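Question (not urgent): is this output format expected?
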Amino acid sequence: LRFLNISECDLPVSAARVICESLATNRCLRTLILRWNTSFGLEESAFAKALSQNMHLQQLNFARCSLSIDA
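Got this back:
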């Protein structure tokens, strides 16, 4: 899987946590689109940590996910 679009899915916080955990160990996914999933705003720290560990993701769209700039 290299491209994943899960925009506007109204993902619960539990799904946001699983995605964050998966991003930390991802080696295949290159593009992730998460637009309009506000549950990620509740997982800012986990999301930021996962992205800092991910060296393979090339494109990320998290518009309207309620993430702050400090995350």
